[in-house]
Amino acid sequence: MNTEKSRTCRAAIMHPYFFPYIGYYQMAAAVKRFLFYDDVQYIKGGHIARNKLLINGKEWLFTVQLSGTSPNQLNQDVRLDEGKWPHWKDKFLRTIDQNYRKAENYAPVANCWRRSCKCPMIGSPAWPSAPFGW
Question: What is the 3-state secondary structure (H, E, C) of 80-129?
């Protein structure tokens, strides 16, 4: 049996998330192809625009302010509420700084997320991929 032909290509597919959990990155690093599932129906209340942080030992749920979302939209068509975004982003980044600045490897991760917060849309492949540098 030719081993070159018998190899399989490992791939993963995920919805684009704001501030993905560590497993999202571990999965992306473990596969040859990582696909963003952005051409499917937006799930209101899902984790595309929300997530949790650990603040003072308790889960803190945060939600990014979106503009005119509906279940009839595709993930790739979801947009930030541009009027609320600057204030929300500043408050979010301050919360992270206040609670995680003493964590190991904080500086490179914080810089990565500051760059990713410049992306104009959640469903854009650039949103979750900004930290990867893709």
Answer: ECCCCHHHHHHHHHHHHHHHHCCCCCHHHHHHHHHHHCCCCCCCCCHHHH
Q: Are strands 11-14 and 33-36 parallel, antiparallel or unpaired?
A: parallel
pLDDT digits (tens, 9 = 90+) for 16-35: 877 788 888 899 899 999 98
The answer to whether the CB of 12 falls within 8 A of the CB of 37 is no
Cβ atoms of 114 and 5 within 8 Å: the answer is: no
Q: What is the pLDDT of residue 126?
A: 44
Per domain, the residue ranges of the chain are 9-124
Asked if residues 86 and 118 have their Cβ atoms less than 8 Å apart, the reply is: no
Report field, pTM of the whole predicted structure over 0.90: no
